[in-house]
């Protein structure tokens, strides 16, 4: 037998063996699900006084209690075996070393490199990426210092006081969420504002009370072709020209993009372009120059602490055994509930006013990454993928949707996120906030099954609702860096197990193309694709509205 044929047959046998191993583990977990689904969570605690300690894990500033889940040591072992059958540790190594894990776009996904300290190196194609990353990071820090010191002057020689970030998706959600979350750590008198929606109402509302002489716009777009961002950028240019009566607006625009040539062609001065790289996905870009608004408010040292938190989670993710690996554990619990318990949604409840946009941020991270039904080769995915991510801010959410969590028929796993300590002055009230979080997790798990009589049946809550509790030592830049990196890695692990590419977004791209086509129709041009009668009817109505 030729050597090539022998090697091919050996490879095929290896693939077949791996597939059989995976199928066996899936079947084993299905049997475990059937065995435990009639067990009440409180019974698991009653049978093991050490359960909380056994199913908890600390990584620096983050403590995870995952004991309120439908798991046992055997189930956990089977979930770990599932991860091993998909060679998760090798997948982690490939992502972090620069292998083109974004196979459909033939790119690496090296957002983790953005968190590397400048003293480290990462050689990709015989080049140390950290050198380039450090150069751009230092340029951003130089911009931060000039703005914070008042040295950055506008067209009329007045110091910039207000910075407006124009972006959408990852260029808006991340910076906006983080600037809100880290408000106690702001160390500047500068004001930062955000515009994302193409609806002109938002632009007009944000700029209504701004002084154009002291306003700087950040145009944040990876491709510098995003229609919403460019439309708002054009409004910004017109607003400045009309108010300042000049077209010399160099000092009023900074571009943050992976396509500097397009930004320069639009009119941005080369020295005011903060680039990043094609291998940085939009929803993973907060660690890059996209994080400029965050650095502007919390300062250079604060942003470095944020990067350090992310990097420390990367090290934990890379080096820890799967059974002690926080992102892997969260990912496997998600797989357990999505694919065996058929949970269609997952709730994130952050007990912090500062984290009021956190669920929105993770919604994009998770649903844009893993909301797919096809593998990169075009085959349909055999399992259900990303759940619907939603949530809210405790304690407000308790008076909104917790009724459904407690008594609804839906099966909804929950992540509770809370900080032990606060920079708020009223420590007693913060303690009450934390107590509310712990009480809700306990109530969801235990219910009040003691109420059995018919006259109180309306008040019965069966409990048996699983949850994780993530407790941060404090809501500071370092801990938030850890937290965001934790969810990034969770999503990646789930994508590997579902055998999808977590780093592309073809559904998003389709919507953009269709919007461009419909714009052609409105402007009297021919559509590239056939347009249905419903869409044409609605287009005629918006044309009439515009005329009136």
Question: Could you explain how this protein is built, in words?
Answer:
This protein is of the alpha/beta class and 548 residues long. It has 3 domains: 14-85 and 321-451 and 459-498, 3-Layer(aba) Sandwich (Rossmann fold); 111-299, Glucose-6-phosphate isomerase like protein, domain 1 (Rossmann fold, 3-Layer(aba) Sandwich); 506-547. The chain has 18 helices and 13 strands. It has a 6-stranded mixed β-sheet with strand order 1-2-13-12-10-11, sandwiched between helices. Strands 6-5-7-8-9 form a 5-stranded parallel β-sheet, sandwiched between helices. Strands 3-4 form a two-stranded antiparallel ribbon. The mean pLDDT is 93.
List the helices and strands and how they pair.
Elements: H1 3-36, H2 41-47, H3 51-54, E1 56-59, E2 62-65, H4 73-85, H5 88-97, E3 123-124, E4 127-128, H6 129-149, E5 162-166, H7 170-181, E6 191-195, H8 200-207, E7 215-220, H9 227-244, E8 253-257, H10 260-266, E9 273-275, H11 292-319, H12 326-339, E10 345-351, H13 358-370, E11 388-393, H14 402-407, E12 414-421, H15 427-446, E13 467-474, H16 477-498, H17 506-522, H18 533-547
Parallel strand pairs: 5-6, 5-7, 7-8, 8-9, 10-11, 10-12, 12-13
Antiparallel strand pairs: 1-2, 2-13, 3-4
Helix pairs in contact: 1-4, 6-11, 7-11, 7-13, 11-16, 12-16, 13-16
EC number: 5.3.1.9
Main location: cytoplasm
Keywords: Cytoplasm, Gluconeogenesis, Glycolysis, Isomerase
